[in-house]
């Protein structure tokens, strides 16, 4: 069975200013996620599911439809809204912020019944990264609790125009994830990469530190486990106006409980994305170079 690509495209990209998942950055007006879908097709994925919101659904569907990909891959849409909650829970008054990336993943439970990968719509992951993911997912059909992620070198994920947050990963000797620690305000200063800790002190990070860029792979049992964890999350933090149910949070809990393992896959790909408006010219130039080199 071919794996599925789940694209998290419900975010509005507030720092960038608008729907950056619809921004034409390639030489022929390609959006970043067009490259991810193309790479997924090459890697043997059979379906792509877009998580979007009703507020821009019509515009999104007109652009990102099966015809756009020459009907080489099945295309589906699901919706993430604030009121998509388990029975017995309601949105607290005043909350406007979405419930986070793992909540977005949960929206696809009724249309994904095979191993699947998740990506952000506004990140470029690279051809090799999707290939590594696709190859591994095709070994997981019928299995449960055996997940994976693609880990990137930290120095290949930075922005020249501001700080970033990254999930710093630690793996065991078998290549399985032990922990993911969110580090914020990461930036390069000269030849050194720093993050800012809770005491507002700068701490150095090695350039080859493995970080997560939200390229995870799961089997369908993850939806069931996510629902269980989301109920617990809402019971503890559901009244907060800005709490979020992140994928790394759910993954860490499942690993710590002994239910799941997560293999850390290595890649030669260079990640890039439009974290800030000032990143856009760099991304446009990168895509121009990739076209010139014959990658696309």
Overview of this protein structure:
This protein is α/β, with parallel strands linked by helices and 296 residues long. The protein has one domain: Spore Coat Polysaccharide Biosynthesis Protein SpsA, Chain A, CATH 3.90.550.10. The chain has 7 helices and 13 strands. It has helices at residues 32-42, 57-63, 101-106, 127-137, 221-237, 247-256, 280-292, and strands at 4-8, 47-52, 74-79, 116-120, 123-124, 146-153, 164-171, 177-189, 192-196, 202-205, 210-218, 261-266, 272-273. A hairpin with a 5-residue loop joins strand 9 and strand 10. Helix 1 (32-42) packs across helix 4 (127-137). The protein is globular. The chain starts with a strand and ends with a helix. 38% of the residues are buried. Mean pLDDT is 91; it is low at 12-18.
Give the topology.
Elements: E1 4-8, H1 32-42, E2 47-52, H2 57-63, E3 74-79, H3 101-106, E4 116-120, E5 123-124, H4 127-137, E6 146-153, E7 164-171, E8 177-189, E9 192-196, E10 202-205, E11 210-218, H5 221-237, H6 247-256, E12 261-266, E13 272-273, H7 280-292
Parallel strand pairs: 1-2, 1-4, 2-3, 6-12
Antiparallel strand pairs: 4-11, 5-13, 6-11, 7-8, 7-11, 8-9, 9-10
Helix pairs in contact: 1-4
What is the straight-line distance between the termini? 26 Å
Gyration radius over CA: 18 Å
Low-confidence stretches: 12-18
Q: SSE order, as H and E?
A: EHEHEHEEHEEEEEEHHEEH
Key phrases:
alpha/beta, two-stranded antiparallel sheet, globular
């Amino acid at each position: 069975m071919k794996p599925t690509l789940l694209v998290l495209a419900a975010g509005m990209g507030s720092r960038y200013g608008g729907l950056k998942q619809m921004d034409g950055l390639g030489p022929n007006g390609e959006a970043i996620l067009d490259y991810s879908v193309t790479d997924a097709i090459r890697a043997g994925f059979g379906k792509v599911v877009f998580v979007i919101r009703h507020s821009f659904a019509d515009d999104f569907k007109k652009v990102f439809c099966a015809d756009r990909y020459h009907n080489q891959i099945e295309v589906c849409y699901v919706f993430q809204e604030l009121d998509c909650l388990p029975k017995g829970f309601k949105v607290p008054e005043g909350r406007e912020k979405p419930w986070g990336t793992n909540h977005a993943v949960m929206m696809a439970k009724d249309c994904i019944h095979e191993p699947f990968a998740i990506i952000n719509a506004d990140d470029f992951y690279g051809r090799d990264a999707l290939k590594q993911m696709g190859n591994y997912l095709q070994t997981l059909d019928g299995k449960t609790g055996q997940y994976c992620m693609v880990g990137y070198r930290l120095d290949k994920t930075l922005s020249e125009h501001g700080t970033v947050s990254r999930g710093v990963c630690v793996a065991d000797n078998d290549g399985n994830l032990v922990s993911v620690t969110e580090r914020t305000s990461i930036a390069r200063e000269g030849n050194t990469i720093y993050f800012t800790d809770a005491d507002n002190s700068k701490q150095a990070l090695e350039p080859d530190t493995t970080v997560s860029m939200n390229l995870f792979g799961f089997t369908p049992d993850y939806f069931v486990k996510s629902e269980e964890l989301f109920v617990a999350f809402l019971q503890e933090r559901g009244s907060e106006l800005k709490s979020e149910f992140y994928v790394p949070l759910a993954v860490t809990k499942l690993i710590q409980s002994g239910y799941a393992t997560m293999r850390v896959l290595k890649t030669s790909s260079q990640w890039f994305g439009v974290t800030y408006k000032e990143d856009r010219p760099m991304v446009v130039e990168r895509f121009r170079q990739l076209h010139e080199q014959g990658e696309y």
